[in-house]
Amino acid sequence: MLPERERHFEAGLLDLRARDGLYSENPHGVEITDGVLYRAVITIPSQVPVGTYTAETFLIGRGRVLAAATRDIEIDKSGFERFVAVAARRHQFVYGLCSVALSLGLGWAAAAAFRRRF
């Protein structure tokens, strides 16, 4: 791609991700301690896809990049959502049966509840 088209594509992609709440920028989100250590709090939306992401940190002073650091961040499911995802992968047949049974049971319960009220 031409450099101009690449910049246009990048700007469009960043705009789409920002609209979806998957990308945000906070120029004041880094706290520097003793001029050497830093701490950054990053809010990660719940709809971010599972995977490994690369975080790049730049120290900018007087309009120039003075230092850079790169770190991989692993995004994974946790709690009940993780339990369900792992069960679906490891025990596919049992998970399918449980899903069908749960759907039938909830459908029957809803039908019984509305039949008595009306």
- How large, in whole angstroms, is the Cα Rg? 24 Å
Number of strands: 4
Q: Give the SSE order as H and E letters.
A: HEEEEHH
The share of residues in helices is 40-55%
How is the largest sheet built, in terms of strand order?
Answer: 1-2
The shape, in one word, is elongated
Q: Strand content of the residues, in percent?
A: 25-35%
What tags apply to this protein structure?
118 residues; alpha+beta; 2 domains; two-stranded antiparallel sheet; 4 strands; 26% strand
List the helices and strands and how they pair.
Blueprint lengths: L2 H17 L10 E4 L3 E4 L10 E11 L2 E12 L3 H12 L1 H26 L1
Antiparallel strand pairs: 1-2, 3-4
Helix pairs in contact: 2-3
Quick gist of this model?
With 118 residues, the chain is of the alpha+beta class. The chain contains 3 helices and 4 strands, in the order H-E-E-E-E-H-H. 47% of the residues lie in helices and 26% in strands.
What does this structure look like?
This protein has 118 residues and is of the alpha+beta class. The protein has two domains: 3-75, no CATH class; 79-117, no CATH class. Helices cover 47% and strands 26% of the residues. It has three helices and four strands; from the N terminus they run H-E-E-E-E-H-H. The strands form two sheets. Strands 1-2 form a two-stranded antiparallel sheet. Helix 2 (79-90) packs across helix 3.
